Amino acid sequence: MADSALIETEPEGPPQGPAARLATVRRLSLGSRTIAAILLLVPVVVIDVFVWPGHLNGDSLSMIEQMKLGQYTNWWAPLVEWIWHPFWKLGVGTGWLLTMQTAGISVGGYLVLRAVLGRVVSAALMAVICLSPPVFALLILMGRDTWFLSATVLAFGFAVRGTAVGGRQRFVWYLLALVASWLAQASRQNAITALVFLFGYVAWVLLAEVGSTGRLSRLRNGRTRLIAAVGVAIAMSALMYGHQLALEKAIGVQSTGPTQGFYAYDLEMLSKRVGRNLFPPSVVRPGMFIIDSTFSEDDPDPIIVYGIQDPHGWPLTGARLRALDRAWKNAVLNHPFDYLYERLRLVLREWSITARPYVAYQPNNFSPNPFGIRVAHPSLDRAAINYLNLFTEQGYVYGGPLLYVFIYLLLATVSGVVLARQSGREPVLGLVGWFGLSVWGLQLGILFTTPGSNYRYENLTIVVGLLTACVTVGWLVRRYRPLRRPVRLPVARLSES
């Protein structure tokens, strides 16, 4: 009898040999790469078209002035200004920096999402994230806060890619991550509080490999490896910070006491709380009249602009700066619990728990300006502002519920814990997890050094919360989705015997 029962019959058609299948895979790969590249360009093009050459704030204008003159202070981002200076002469204005900062966030976020998601899905999600109100409100600002955000996301993205590819190729990605980290720290002084998590985790991954080869068998022990990774992270952070200080000194950066911003804020808050003017008389006139009339829980600018007694304005220098420094230290030592109370109260406002997000986006109120920089397309810029105003209150002054910071802080924290627990099994997921937890390093810096509340101070928290949440959902879907139907294998027809 002929045994001709068939499990599955392969459809007739041209044979698909290994070379043909490889060519098909390559065509699909090229197509997905092309689609992903187009999607990643979407937010860059949209932001450039609508708000070119970017919205400027007071910090932006001050940095442009210093950059053009080639005279720098450590109040803002002198190293980035120094790098920008020769390119400005070649025509690289604020619009090109707007393009680069948006592209950096788009590419960096894409690389983070690629930890679990495909090319096209990652690129599409990144386009949606960049154009969503909470992030779009941040990206229209051309300034050091956005530079910090872009460089930090790019640094973690490069590191995620390096951890994923492994081998010698990963060191190229790690080197790119180090360069992006350098730019992030050069953009904002408190960037190191987030970057230390990156340094520590990459060190942990590399030390684990060294231990597995037997060259340093002690590193096989998890506790020993953790201690070594923490040491490397602290050393790397100190080296980067010290290197940049030395470079600033080498190029002639003048010190203007950048800490005096939060000194003034703290003294104003403490003076209001204890009912007595704690400022030195040479800085603010004795009595509470000035403090009461300029008081703002979110912004130190009123006391700085209208209350400081200095013929040369702000920032303070010389004897007045030293007097402010002594007054702040005395106030903190004499009123430690009041100081901690005011600082914690500020953090709760910054997290949008006890107050709405302050300054939801940077309005276009510095166009025109002394440098001749103005919005290229006023009608399109107005359309972008109208879009944001759908999600804010009183224009740019307050953010609506979609911009509440605690939502994204919670997303980053929960996602960070979930993914960090996978460090031993999937180091790439672990790195994304520590990316989520890095926002708590940023909160530490905000707790002690932020001069008031502002939505843009939490720009990294917003983006990290969205990115890590997407990665967590992608990982959970991959882990718990129902098993696919078994692959149908072709079985050759059995000839009758």
Mean pLDDT: 89
Q: Write out the strand line-up for the largest beta sheet, numbering strands in chain order.
A: 1-2
Outline the low-pLDDT stretches.
1-11, 491-497
Principal-axis shape equals globular
Number of strands: 2
Count of helical stretches: 20
Distance between the termini: 7 Å
Biggest sheet architecture: 2 strands, antiparallel
Question: What series of H and E elements makes up the topology?
Answer: HHHHHHHHHHHHHHHHEEHHHH
Beta strand %: under 5%
Model description:
With 497 residues, the chain is an all-alpha fold. The protein folds into 2 domains: 30-253 and 393-480, no CATH class; 256-349, no CATH class. Helices cover 65% and strands 1% of the residues. It is built from 20 helices and 2 strands. Strands 1-2 form a two-stranded antiparallel sheet. A hairpin with a 4-residue loop joins strand 1 (392-393) and strand 2. Helix 7 (144-165) packs antiparallel against helix 18 (427-437), helix 9 (192-212) packs across helix 10 (222-250) and helix 11 (260-274) packs across helix 14. The longest helix has 34 residues, at 18-51. The model is unreliable at 1-11 and 491-497 (pLDDT under 50).
